[in-house]
Amino acid sequence: MPEVNGPQRLGGWTRFVTARPRLTLLAALVITALAVLAGSGVADRMGSGGWQAPDAESTYATKALEREFPASQPNLLLLVDSGGASVDDPAVAAEAARLAKRLAGEADVVGVRSYWQDKTPALRAEDGKEALIAARIEGDDKASGEVLDRIAPAYRGKHGPVSVSIGGPVAVQHEMQTIIEDDLLRAEMIALPVTLVLLVMVFGSAIAALLPLGVGIVAILGTNAVLRGITEFTDVSVFAQNLTTALGLGLAIDYALFIVRRFREELATGAPTRTAIGTTLRTAGRTVLFSALTVAVSLAAMLVFPQYFLRSFAYAGIAVVLLAASAALILLPAALMLLGPRVNSLDLRKLLRRGRAKPQTEAGAGWARFTALVMRRAPVFAVVTSVGLVLLGLPFLGVRFGTADDRQLPASSESHVVQQHLRDGFPGSPGGSLDILAEGEATPAQYAEYRDRLAGLPGVLRVDGPLTDGRTAYFSVLGKGEPVGEETQRLVKDLRAQPAPFDTSVTGTAAVLVDSKAAIGDRLPWAVGIIAVVTLLLVFLLTGSVLIPLQAVVLNALSLTAMFGAVVWVFQDGHLSGPLSFTSTGDIETTLPVLMFCVAFGLSMDYGVFLLSRIKEEYDRTGDHEQAVAFGLRRTGGLITAAAVILAVVMVAIGTSRVTNTKMLGLGIALAVLMDAMVVRSLLVPTVMKLMGRASWWAPAPLRGFHQRFGLSEGEAAARPDSGAGRPEAGAGAIPDSASEPERVPSGT
User: Fold this and answer.
1) CA within 13 Å, CB half, 203
2) Fewer CB within 10 Å: N-end or C-end of the chain?
3) What pLDDT shows up at residue 305?
4) Which of 606, 592, 628 lies closest to 676, judged by CA?
5) Could you read off the pLDDT of 600-625 as tens digits, one per residue?
6) Cα gap 522→195, rounded to integer Å
């Protein structure tokens, strides 16, 4: 904790960031420019998968089958439409055979097979007007996407009597990646100007409004460079870029709002610029650092999961949080040092004002009256609000987990159209079969006996195979149930339980889902435990209380109920699918709730730290519990609400994506943020703290001693009168705190 002996004594950090502000900003400009170069093309190096657990049985089997039997794992499908004729028409068959032969000659394309090759019923539509050519493009997501770009134009479109459309997993992934890049650019174009307008409305100053945007842009560009470096060592999901933009803007705005607000408060008391910055960094700056740690911990918890989809969000989230906090604590003070009182310049709201402005002493009066009302009726507000949040979360009890597929894409996208044709017109369902890899020597009789045993299982419709290659064989099992339904998931377990004279591994869409659910279930307690323990510790260090950290964790979790309930009601059950333009699959991708929990919980703690820090500061100063709670709401209520609205705007912009998972992520977190700021922070926190009274601050003696030695707080104001420490006189260790002065904050803050 910095040593402070008087209002003019500056800490080392303040001297560091204000000594040469122009040089600091110039260095930041150079580093940002280098980050732009380093991060260019990062999206091209990212993958659109990552939902599989890399150590799962299904992952092993899939890779082995791709290597040994590439035709069993096609990722490219050419849908051949005969234009009303039969696919068995000689002219159609001849043209399709020519296309298949040409495709087999393409570099990096293996395992080509077609309906016309052996008249396989599964490759022919039930109406006889369409059929398939299947193949496998070798390589990872990036390499296979490049091959697809190279060969697709030669096959897509009209070819004599037939027309060809391109689908399959590689086409779905490639189209998804392209759409996400386009949508992200559009989201940024929406979010930036709207955010700037809102910041002007909050600050009243165009100069002050530009500062948070600058911090956000630095954080986003820096994180892109970090992700580009990470792609050299491991897989990173393209979806992580959406989180980079959302958190980069959202958290940068949160932190900058808090710091600029406090700086303007200090200026309003008549403090010189450098002194105002010093006080701001010792108070709001410390809270920003604390808040960044809580958000980073929530996001870091995703590192315990094996799926690179979740780990990617941890990489992006940790980087953007730390960069946003660093920019807010280094670049922002340097900019404020140069601006000084000019931070209030260019009040654009004067153009809209009519008559005289409201007296500045009215700032926070509305929140003061609202808080007084809530605390007078604390039991009523606590019960009604808690019950309401629980009711909003009830739809989540009916959640069904599934896997991401082509239906994430817009209904008009080519690969979605192809897959929908397969679902509607071909026997069975695409992705519905289960593949079994058999390794080890076996006789034909043993293979036949094993196949017959599989065919006798209750959920099996048909067993094809074996296709053998020396010591390895491959079976395909078609189940009676939906591709990822409960019946097919049970079939996966039944297949794995069957004895065999050789080693077997089961894969397929349902097997991937079973393994993914198991991997998440095994590691979820660890992730939740890490978040809970570290959050309890950090909030204890901030408040010195044992009960307030418990309250913070419980209320934060309660604030997420509306998000989870809405996700199921809207995206699983399909309500509002028309207005929101998405196709409901009837389930939720397994990793999405985990991701949304970690992100939303971290953001909720972000706002919780802002509020609790000001409550603790006032309680230390006065010892009056109820006054401290009311003071905290009055000083931060408008700030937290404004920050939440701005972050929600950014998340809604992300939610305009045409990819369903991204839409779900953006809109769901926007709802969680608004519920937390406008319901939990405004209603539940003050009512619960009112009901708990001064007991809120209780801690056993050993922990009180620990906190006095190692704890942190936003303010370094005098100890409260009843603490036994006494209140220092001015100039003997006390820091003038604008919070104790009458409201003299510039209009707009």
Assistant:
1) 35
2) N
3) 93
4) 606
5) 998 888 888 888 888 988 888 888 99
6) 40
